[in-house]
Write a structure and sequence with these properties.
Number of domains: 3
Distance between the termini: 25 Å
Number of strands: 18
CATH superfamily of the largest domain: Aminohydrolase, N-terminal nucleophile (Ntn) domain
Helix content: 40-55%
Radius of gyration: 24 Å
CATH architecture of the largest domain: 4-Layer Sandwich
CATH topology of the largest domain: Glutamine Phosphoribosylpyrophosphate, subunit 1, domain 1
Shape: globular
Amino acid sequence: MCGIAGIFAYHVDAPPLDRDELLRIREAMITRGPDAAGLWISGNQRVGMTHRRLSIIDLSEAGLQPMSGEDGKLRIVFNGEIYNYKTLRAELERKGYCFHSQSDTEVLLNLYADRGPDLVHALRGMYAFAIWDENKKGLLLARDPFGIKPLYYADNGNSFRFASQVKALLRSQKIDTQPNPAGQVGFFLWGSVPDPYTLYKGIHALPAGSTLWVSEVGSRQPAPFFNIARTLSAGRAACPASREEGFEYLRAALLDSVQHHLVADVPVGVFLSAGLDSTTLTALAAESSSMALHTATLGFNGYRSTENDETILAVKVADQYHTTHHTRWVSREDFLNERERLLKAMDQPTIDGVNTYFVSKAAAESGLKVAISGIGGDELFGGYPSFQDIPRMVKLLSPFNIAPGLGRLFRRVSAPVLKRLTSPKYAGLLEYGGTYGGAYLLRRGFFMPWELPEILGDKITREGWDELKPLMKLEQTTHGVMSERVKVSALEMNWYMRNQLLRDADWAGMAHSLEIRVPFVDVELIRRIAPLLTETFPGKRDMARTPRRPLPWEILNRRKTGFAVPVREWLTQGNGRQCGERGLRGWAKQVMEM
């Protein structure tokens, strides 16, 4: 895990790149890579690449970046991990490629020399990388299929800049930082800024599962190479014949993913809660690894001895699977003491990530550089209430689709009243609830569309909404998908998981120089599980049955509670009044001012 950045002064009239600018961008990402730093600038001062290193695979100097190919014609900076790099290396060696390190970075470099931009189809991992091709006088950027690793860029018409963080690019001081209405509307609509937007007009996210080619005539449009919905819908011919065979197939696929995510030259730990996802990963990791396994759990003083207290059952799981366990208790005072550092680390505004920030801090303080998270389990195995609620809502309310004016009228009349009595979402049921995209917006939306003008004003709201086109894009997410379950899975993975959970894991982990890995968010796992998917199988309990040594009874039969963080209570406690806004709406306004 690292921080990468670069500048390509591609236009003939562009000034040579500024070395100090490139270093400013790099040093803004020091927590992403405290172990080493590298810099390369071409002889003509037109291309520069830089890197901050967190050493995980090949800890020697042979793994330093920017890394060059055998003849110096290729250069790479890379953030992430390629879990199948040893298999790819063996294939390349059989073709005659030479290696001078044990790193996955060098595998990427030789794989590009062999396959060009098509290398992405062979990769299993989380990644964001840039490769300078001297022969083609061009720059290739790529981001992994799920967007686990971030990559941002800015193109002002003569120079192209990229980095792992928005805040790092801001150090350039040569980027258009005018507010982007789409980014602002997107944040208040979802609680996070949806890709490819940021809060700034001049900075864009490379979409997940895309490549981007930049040549001497500038940057092309991002080229997608992966689609979640199509992958989930694409079964294979060799589908298991029975449910029991399907279960064994599921176990093999999960175990394979966990084993790949344990690949490292440093110890790997697990974020352990009392939920099925993390306990299953802990059990499979303990089954797979010969090394001592570390686990970390977060406890909140205000939740002691309540159903939201994860620590007691987590200790039971740790004892059963013989892990070295760490519990970190967090109080309101801890939150307030860390608040400014947390907001500074938050690369883009988000209403979530506080829990990941503190559990990452605990893992890092225990000496870990790598930790496994259960992100993606609910999205893949149907663990959210949305898997029942959204299809039910659509069936019930789809008749109102033939009279859209009625839904709009109901919303306009009821919204002012309902806002004072209950959730404002109820006002939109007839207008939005009859389609999967609209129902999902009601389920996951933060502020509702009709509330945005009160926050942002009519002009910004209108411009941002017109650019975002959220309802159209939500419907595109499930286009051609027949299965109700796969529709919801595709929506949750593309929107909530990509734009919030994975992004929060990145910035919160990197704030403490900790790499967070997500075995449930794995290309090969999803390809293998896709043929099994029915409306009811495999579910969370099927997943939880896969370890050879069963999970504790209390875990298997615990009611799903989600992972609660008392941020709202911390913000309002002791100030003499209670915040009048629902949920984390007040916190959202605070992080927008960071």
